[in-house]
Amino acid sequence: MSRIPALITTLAVALGCLAACSGEAPPERAPTATASRGPSPKTFAWRTQAPVFGQPIGAGGVGVVYESAPGERFRVVAFDPHTGRRLWRDEVSPSFTIDGDHLTPVTVTLKRRQGEESTYVAYFTPRDSGNLHADLMVVRPRTGEPVRIAYDRLFRTDPETCPDGRNVCVLALDEQTDSIRTYRLDAAGHLDVTHQYADEGKEQFGLGLVLDDDGSRDLLQRVDSDRQVVWSRPITDVFPGAQWETQRWFTRSGGTYIAALGPPSEITTSAGIATKRTPDLRKARMTAFDAHTGRTLWSVGGVVPCLDWHGWAVADEGERGPQARRGDPDSSVPWVRCRANGGYEYRSTEADSAYSLRSVVLEGFDPTTGKTTWRLPLSPTDQLLQGDQVPFLDRTTAVVSTRRGREQVDLKSGRHRLAGQDATLHCLDDARARYREPIYYDDAPIYYRNGGTLVVPCGPEGRPDGSSHRVGAAMADRWGSTIDGVDVVATRDGLEAYSQARNTT
Length: 505
Fold this sequence. Notes:
Strand content: over 45%
Number of helices: 3
Mean pLDDT: 72
Distance between the termini: 73 Å
């Protein structure tokens, strides 16, 4: 049972494109810091202008970030965090990693024979064959020299360190069997299957969950690494009354799976405009079930994930990485969902996108019981479910629109108050980059991919503030990366860095 059209459909409706690529400029050096006594604050160090998307990461004392590239492509760039000088760059492909749609550089840390560990940059680079086929590159951070390469696959998730700590693991599509498998890339460059939970014709979600069709109904199954079924349930038992052929999310909290099923949607494409209409979000459902027995623990209708830090995508059991839920239910990361009345429409063109939605209630919930812990009705004009329009004071305090105006809400407790006009807000600004390597659905090429999410200063209305991009150390501490002692943060114009000023007497 092929699921590739469904995956491509998910990709199609998440598409968009913003500004075209801009040129590069050399780093702008800051003036020499003045002498000071006492604790030294972080001071502006340098700035570069470049079409970056997503925040930079650190790898072995080197900064790494993704950029738009000429010809509607992507590239990875490594830079010196102390000067902003570029060290190397290479072309990047999103391959088939469509969960979440955003691209972010990743690192893998591997053990060597002597027990020492080394950190490498891992990314996909496109092949001439196109159609999102890519090579997996594992390279040295400072030089870009490849240490391992896996050729010609449709990769489904970002690469990550395998549980053995010595190899690189990644989910990829086996086109011969139409199933997603976990592959292991070893030091010799061999790419072998390490887990295949799903037999041919089954769809694999990771964490040992597969969807099987017994000829009359769809079954959600938990299987072990030997492909033995641990438990099996009709999908209609997990999601009563819901239609399975819609958007799906999975995550895990301890011994509990939490799954969400979106309502039925209609997707049309005409004259370059992709339109997704969802008639009624009340038909969505979120369900939790025991990972070991499959028993339903709780089920709530009319809610979908929003303002989500969990990714709602899962990795194979026992593996670590950004796709796996980190922490226990008492984690500091808030659990939040949205309850909406009516439906919504999302329209996307090459030049712009539009999103309309009726009233939404923001809810916190307990992942162990599903019970709502707090509720906050939002204004009909709030675009919370669009995600990238929400400004933040920090990672657990968002600013949303209610009927009282702009309010800041603690996502863990639900406490909220009117946002101060002088507050420095941070917007998740979706920096979409055009990527033009077509894949085909219904004989029509689909070209565009989201690039990544920046965090920029914004005003009380949640609109990015174009007057200044001097974000300061506090912003870098929260949203950028500290790389070899230097805070580096991406803005819509490029990168900015802040370093510790030296005390002089």
